[in-house]
Amino acid sequence: MLICRTKKEWLNCRDQMEGNGSIALVPTMGALHQGHLQLAKQAKADHDQLVMTIFVNPLQFGEGEDYDHYPRQEEADIEKAKASGVDVLWLPSVDDIYPRDPAVTVRVGKMSERLCGRHRPGHFDGMATVVMKFLQLVRPDAAYFGKKDGQQLAILTRMCEDFHLDVAVVGGETVREEDGLALSSRNVFLSEGERKEAPLLYKTLQKGYERFRQQKESPVKTEREVTAELSERITASIDYVELLTYPSLEPSDENDTDEQLILAAAVRYPQARLIDNVIFERE
To answer: Does 35 appear as a known binding residue?
Structure first.
């Protein structure tokens, strides 16, 4: 596995990759877990060459969020990336990606006004901006992102379509602990008691989804019932519970054209914010 740290090193490496088959990109912020590694293995199976980036992007953290405390474990990440088949690992510095204050950024419109975007203003603008930079610099045939952040996946898919980028955006299935908790770099910040109850987030979403499908409930009723059940079962504060069309992320009604729906939620513990969702086919 080759390791690049500067933009210059990366561009030299990219020149050497030219003509050696298809290229897949897995962008990450590090603190790699099995979810990232499963994406890497999926990408490697689909393509000849695999590039992974590790970059904690300051542009997608708002005031009071955990940029300074976001887990960083470079040595362990290098070993995990190597073991999962990564061909090139690029660990750029902030100065490499943002050599000066950006005058032009990607602005996400309506798709960022719901779910996490409503509670983290500017987050998806920063995320889309850095992904756009990596897509331009890496020039992959495909880029891989986890479905756990369904809103991020939907936004990036739409961004590539709207900007006519010649890259496939591929979603990887959410990887979970045995008790159902979605893997996340932020899980390390959960206390013992919080960790025990955290799997109830996904279990409650599953229950809400099943009730919505079987009883033909309205989206609003499902949102209210899931919110009420979460409030009773966990100590975290609830940011949102929303049932929307997917991937357009609009309120659902009988005139929708999307073939899928998403039931998503986010909750906050004192040191960790957790998100999860169920994406399912419309009947």
So the answer is: yes
